[in-house]
Write a structure and sequence with these properties.
The chain has a two-stranded antiparallel ribbon with strand order 1-2. The N and C termini lie far apart (52 Å). Helix content is 66%, strand content 5%. By secondary structure, the chain is mainly alpha-helical. It has 5 helices and 2 strands. The protein has 3 domains: 39 residues, no CATH class; 30 residues; 45 residues.
Length: 131
């Protein structure tokens, strides 16, 4: 084998002026990749359609993503408190699918929703306690 570094293995390093610590440019790009992709997608969509950056559309996007954001904050608190519980996603999926079925069947009675919430909580407690 040759001792020559290949292009894939060679890293571009920049010296930090204060600490003289090498910074890997690829690591910075990989860490900020989702943010770069989001900015590029937002730029493209704002140029592609005139309705993307309207106030009503941004409020709609915020409203649709708020449920996921609230669940993510709650799951972060559970993980940080060392009570690792990854079944939250399953419970959210169960609650969402049940709510969708009840909406299709036009069942809007609060006692039904309350009883289903009690049942699913008891089922989750049973599974979490014994398994």
């Amino acid at each position: 084998m040759s001792d020559k570094p290949t292009i894939l293995k060679e890293r571009v390093k920049i010296k930090n002026q204060k600490q003289n610590v090498p910074i890997d440019v690829r690591d910075i790009i990989f860490q900020s990749g989702p943010l770069i992709a989001l900015l590029l997608l937002g730029g493209y969509l704002s140029c592609a359609t005139p309705h993307f950056l309207t106030v009503s559309n941004l409020i709609n996007v915020a409203r649709q993503s708020s449920i996921t954001a609230i669940l993510a904050v709650g799951q972060t608190m559970v993980i940080l408190s060392a009570g690792i519980d990854i079944s939250v996603g399953a419970i959210v999926a169960l609650a969402g699918s049940t709510a969708a079925v009840l909406m299709v069947l036009r069942v809007y009675l609060w006692p039904t929703e309350f009883l289903w919430g009690c049942y699913s909580s008891a089922l989750h407690g049973y599974v979490g306690w014994f398994y």
